[in-house]
Design a protein that fits this description.
Helices cover 37% and strands 21% of the residues. The chain is α/β, with parallel strands linked by helices.
Length: 327
């Protein structure tokens, strides 16, 4: 869980003013669990406002940032916006050299099917300016698995999978998956999450999660009247996915999808067991099936596949993990 949680206190539901979010981030950097804390997430539009707070990090270390880009609606605008944002980032880097590090940019794709030419140009620009980058789809289509035929009757395989395949061929490009929000409709289904994790695992595309993951285990939220995803489910499923051989047929692909869906949907914390050298997940079926994932596989997954998640609270995940006896 090293560097697992990027701090997103500026965003809902916390939506703290910048000064309070910075104070909160600094206080967490001084805590014993700071090893779990990642970057400070900030919209590129607020970089100027951040300047007055940079001196507060003089005795703490470099302020590590993940910058959120804006939304564009066409491939042409996406490319121009990327150029403009890189210029802002580089000017900021130069102005505050030795004090801040901007390592990551998180972008929103102009559509679910951007052109290959646009993506190549955008990715080349980001790579040449030393920016790790994760790209978010504007809207995830319905995943309509027909469990009788094992087929997806939705648009996922025609709309999303080809774009992930294209991104997999581009150097250092990753996917950003939004897992919730402040309204019920913002939470993706178990099937959508499973399909994304499966696609990215098979095609070896790294994933950064964001939103709606304040708690370790999937559970029902009365506030949003829906099920909220758990970050333990997400990262366990991403790691689990990396243990599967590449499916050679639709039957193998479906079996992988079903198991990932079960793990993402699991609401029983006792089905997860963390030992010094492995994670054990109990499927909860009639055969008492269980899977063991070694520490080495988990470490490799964190480096290559399941990178981090953004949360507007660092304390809530800590409190929940402590209550579960996992910290």
């Amino acid at each position: 869980m090293n560097g697992l949680i990027d701090y997103a206190g500026l965003f809902p539901p916390a939506k703290l003013p910048l000064n309070e979010a910075i104070s909160e981030y600094i206080s967490h950097l001084k805590e014993e669990e700071k090893w779990m804390l990642g970057r400070f997430i900030i919209p590129i539009s607020q970089l100027t406002d951040l300047e007055e707070f940079i001196p507060q990090f003089e005795n703490i270390g470099m302020l590590r940032l993940s910058v959120l880009g804006g939304q564009s609606t066409s491939d042409k605008d996406f490319l121009q916006q990327t150029k403009d944002e890189i210029k802002i980032i580089n000017n900021y880097r130069e102005k505050h050299e030795g004090k801040i590090v901007i390592e990551v940019i998180e972008t929103k794709l102009p559509s679910n099917s951007p052109s290959k030419k646009a993506m190549i140009n955008v990715v080349d620009l980001l790579n040449s300016n030393n920016l790790e980058h994760y790209h978010e789809f504007p809207k995830l289509p319905y995943v309509g698995i027909n469990y009788a035929t094992n087929e997806d009757e939705g648009d996922w395989d025609t709309e999303i999978t080809p774009t992930i395949e294209m991104i997999s061929k581009l150097k250092n490009a990753g996917i950003k998956l939004r897992c919730g929000g402040i309204v019920k409709d913002a939470f993706p289904s178990v099937e959508q999450v499973a399909a994304m994790i499966q696609n990215c695992s098979i095609l070896q595309v790294p994933v950064k999660f964001t939103a709606g993951l304040h708690h370790p285990i999937r559970h029902h939220s009365s506030e949003y009247d829906t099920e909220m995803h758990g970050f333990i489910n997400m990262f366990s499923a991403s790691t689990f996915a990396s243990t599967f051989p590449k499916p050679e047929n639709e039957q193998e692909k479906f079996r992988m999808f079903i198991l990932l869906s079960h793990m993402i949907d699991c609401q029983n914390e006792s089905d997860f067991e963390f030992l010094d050298d492995k994670l054990v997940w109990k499927v909860g079926d009639d055969r008492d099936s269980r899977f063991e994932i070694s520490r080495e596989i988990i470490e490799k997954s964190r480096q290559d596949t399941a990178i981090s998640f953004g949360s507007c609270s660092f304390q809530e995940p800590m409190d929940d993990l402590t209550q579960l006896g996992w910290m």
